[in-house]
Amino acid sequence: MIANKGQEYRRGVQNNRQKKEGENQSFHVKHKKQEKLQMVCGMRPVLEAIAAGKQIDKIMMQSNLEGQLAYELKAKIREAGLPVQYVPAEKLNRMTDSNHQGVVATISPITFCDFAELLQGLLDEGKKPFILLLDHITDVRNLGAIVRTAECAGIDAVVVPDRGSAQINEDAIKCSSGALLRMPICREQNFKTVLNLARQSGLAVCAATENGATDYLSVDFTQPMVLIMGSEDTGISTELLKMSDVRARLPICGDVQSLNVSVAAGVFMYEMMRQRRV
Fold first, then answer.
1. Could you tell me if 130 and 102 lie in one domain?
2. In what order do the strands lie in the sheet with 225-230?
3. Which of 78, 107, 136 is a domain's end point?
4. I need a surface site. Which of 27, 59, 94, 110 has the fewest CB within 10 A?
């Protein structure tokens, strides 16, 4: 049942997506079984990958690229809102022996979902969505472990940022025991927009923070909800904390005052499951 939940909401939104974007770009796409990041090297190949709608994870580019083709590529990157990192040529040379022309793009091994469409699909099915939002989790092992637990706990989807997050690569997929290939993953540029849409749709927002005023056992997880888990070092950003309806904490009895983020996320998710199964 859990392994197929990514297909359930896709069926509900497939037709609308096809009308907007055409049959070839249907939202009804299963995660591919491919696990390794593919590299696309060279300005023209990267341009073609963007035009083909490939799920580009990141683009690395020399900062001093010039010429008409380079300008065209930069414009397409901005237009598509793709994450780009400017690096020295030496780094690109270490990554590949190919003639990279100052540009290397990595293709994600999974197909990302659009949050707005996913949420609408869940609501149309009459579900009470439980969405996990990961605020810049940078360790691939933590990311993989969290998504593994989320898949086991029946979480509807996981939202990650398009920049400053752990790369969804072979290591992350292995750490998730393949859950990253089954769990709906949304990669979004603006988390404030995500939370505003969620709240407008009737979802509460719970921020998991060690400085929270509410014990996690007092939170009503039976309601539709977005649960925010913060980064390993800085926690949840201030702007997202301000948007939360409740700030929940886990009790700490020992001298170490914080839990590993994947462990903490597991506690919250299984409390949600416990409440919803009662």
1. no
2. 185-188, 157-161, 130-135, 225-230, 204-208, 246-249, 214-215
3. 107
4. 94
**Amino acid letter for position 123:** L
Backbone angles phi, psi at 22, to 5 degrees: 95, 160
pLDDT-based confidence at residue 274 (cuts at 50, 70, 90) = very high
* Amino acid 6: pLDDT: 46
Per-residue pLDDT at 30:
34
Looking at 84, 107, 130, the residue that finishes a domain is 107
Q: What tens digit of pLDDT does each residue of 6-54 get?
A: 444 444 444 444 443 333 332 223 333 334 568 899 999 999 989 888 8
The pLDDT assigned to 28 comes to 29
- pTM for the predicted model, two decimal places: 0.76
